[in-house]
Every structure is written in structure tokens, then in C-alpha cells.
Amino acid sequence: MGEQKKYDVFISYSRKDLEEVSTFVEMLKTRIPTLEVWMDLEGITAADEFDEKIISAIDASSYVIFAVSPNSNSIGEGSSKWTKKELVYAKNTGKKVIPVLLNGAELNSWFLFEFGRVDCIDSSNKHQIEKLLKNIAKWSNKELVKPQKEKKVLTLDEQQLLNEARTLKDRIEKNKRVAKIALISVLALSVLTISIVFGINRYKAYKAIQYTVLNDSIAPYTIEISGFELINGYIPKKISIPKKIKKNDTTYLVTRIGDGAFSGCTSLTSVTIPNSVTEIGQDAFIGCRSLISITIPNSITSIGWWAFSNCSNLTSITIPSSVIWIASGVFYNCSSLTYVTIPNSVTKIGPYAFYKCSAITSVTIPNSVTEIGDKAFWDCKSLTSVTIPNSVTEIGEGTFEGCTSLTSVTIPNSVTHIGERAFVGCSNLKAIYIPRGSKARFAKMYCLEDLQHLLVER
User: Fold this and answer.
1) CB-based burial of residue 152 (10 Å sphere; 0-12 exposed, 13-18 middle, 19+ buried)?
2) pLDDT greater than 50 at residue 188
3) DSSP states of 163-228 as a string?
4) What is the mean pLDDT of the chain?
5) Could you tell me the pTM of the whole model?
6) Which phi-psi region, left, alpha or beta, contains residue 312 (left: φ > 0; alpha: ψ -120 to 50)?
């Protein structure tokens, strides 16, 4: 028997996602041509096959990519038991596991319990995919091929301007003195233009902001805020993010706040976000413990995982109606948060969304929400009552666990599943209100077996 072939990546996935995962793997190999990827295309049907094929493949791989979907990530009946076995074995053998979220999927409580909070890659987010590709290339010591950029077709006027610019450049190269004078003139004109159009004071404060160009090939040109620099050795207390940033005579529209852009800015007290921004990346403001207020415009459509977690002084926040789901851990341990507005555009409240928000006294869940994730309101000790709308079908594990001030909860007929420990530790719970004629059905739910005496039909 020959020596076992070595692989860079082992792909853990559900066979039901074969087409989408195959496309993802093809993209990996296109961008990193020499990457060695192991992916089971035949399927596992018995334990001996798992031992022979999967274990040896994981052993031969440097790290594991877990394709997260409802098929690979479910618990109980219909779950993909082989992916769970693969992940457990990978963990026990010290392999790095990278979750890649397919179609907006989220990690379930089992994974979070086994692996803790890990950085996830959203397969629909090109910036996160690009970061993943760079890391894989670095870890594997392989060359990353740049994606082909779509070339812009220039109009006759644009081509003429380009030719004139090239001619000017040639003249500048021939005459250094002329170049210096021209450069000074251009800078003076730029400052004058900015002063007239935007107001010069708006740009003085942005020397501290770092950014990454997202698109410089086709207008509108876009940029993301990636971090900040210290001002005179200090972290800024207030930041107003500009709508536009000018770089090398090109004006870029700020459309994204990058992953971890302001993470750990412990002195930051307030942030204003312009209405050009459509996305706040994961971990964007994690650990900003002095942050008291933040203005989120209606242009925002996505707020990433754990974006405001551990912002312990944040007291209130309004989620704009453009957001359709509240991601995992967004307000994790925001212990001063007393008020939050959830718009009726939101369809899902993710796991750990308001975990340990111990100051929240009440929350209104709109009738657009269909699912409340695992431990979404875990240990919200000041929460006294909650009404679940008749749009919700699923309440996750430990959703209201440890809510010691909760005295009542209303559950509609639409709910078909309530996870384990959903109301464990709710020591002051006096009544669980359910629709008339539904007591027999709800009493059969495992999590309510010991709480049947609290079920009240009305």
C-alpha cells in the first residue's frame, strides 16, 4: 500500500448540497490552482466506510471547511450525522475547522457548544470569500491567482480624456520642474473643489480612518472602512464616517464597514454612519465598551455576526426596516441595553442575538419573525414579559433560559417546535398563555413537560 496522499483542504458537507459545494470547490481551485482538495463524491452509508475513507482523508488534510446549510447543520431527525462525526474527529485531532455559510445559514447550538464562537465565512459575501482565499493560500503556501476584472468600455470622451492624461504624464516625466508646479496646482484645485462641494471641515477629521478599496474598475467606485489610526496617540471618542473618500483623484463611495473595523475601540462613545453604507461587517464594533449611541441608517441591509457584542454601555438601538434578519450574537452581552426596536422586516432572530442583555425589560417581536434562535434572550434577567406573534413557528433551545424576572409569555398556535431548556431558570414565571384547545398539543412538547401547570388557555 502506497503512502497516503496529502491534502490542503477536507470538505465536510451534506450530499444534498453537492451542486452548490462543487461550485464553491471549483472556485477554490480556480483561484488557487495547486490547492489539493478532498471531497467525498460517493457518499457514506456505513460506519466502516467512515473509518476507511473519511478518517484517513481528514488525517491527510491540513484543515477542514464545513459547508453550513440546513441539511448539514440540522439537529435530530433528518440531520446529517456524518458531518457531525467528521467535525468531532477533526476537532479531536487538532484540525482547524472553518465554517462557510451557504444561503444565509447559521451555526446551530451543537456546533457553538463544541467549538465556541469561531469566525464564519458567508459564501455570498465576496469580501469574506476573498479573505478566506488569501488565508488558505497563505496557510498552504500556494499562489493565489487574482480574479479577472471586468474591463470598462470607455466612451469617446473618456478615451480622449485618458489620452490627454497620458500626454500630460509624458510631459511631466520630461520636465521635473513642470511636474512639481502641476502637482501643486492639482492639489490646490482639489482642496478648493472639496471645500466648495463638501465643506472642508468634513474631511479634516478623517485622517484617522483606514479604508480598503472594494471596486475601482467600474463606477460607482466603492470603498470599505477597515479600521483607524490613533490621533496623537489616542483612540478617537467620536467618529462620523464620511459618505465619500477621495484617493488619487478618484472619489469612492463608502458602502461597507469592514469586519472588525472598530473592534476593541474602548474609548469610542458615538458613531454616525452615512446612508451610503449598506453593510456592517461581523465583529465591526465588538468590545467598544464606551459606545453609548450609534446611528444606523435605513440603507443598512445586513449587520454581521457579533457586530456590537460586548458593547456594555450601549443603552438603546433602532434596527432599520431594511434589515431582514438579526444575525447571531449581534448584541451579545450588551448589558446596558434597555430598549431595542425590531422592525417588521425582520424574519429571523439569530442565536445569542440578545444573550445576557440583562437590562432589557421588554421586547416586541414583530409578526414578520418566523424563527427565534437558540439562546436568543438567554439570561435577560430584567425581561418581565414577552409576546410571541403568530408568525413564529420555531423557538430555539434555551431561548429564554435564566430570565428570572419573566412572569408571563404568550405562545401562538403557529409554534410547532420549542427547543430544550427554553424556559429553564425562569423562576418567576407564573403563566404560559396558549390558544384555546391547544393544551394537549403543547403539553406533549418535551420542554414543557415540567411546566404543564403553567399552561393557560385563553
Assistant:
1) exposed
2) no
3) HHHHHHHHHHHH-HHHHHHHHHHHHHHHHHHHHHHT-THHHHGGGGEEEEEEE-SSSSPEEEEEEE
4) 80
5) 0.58
6) alpha
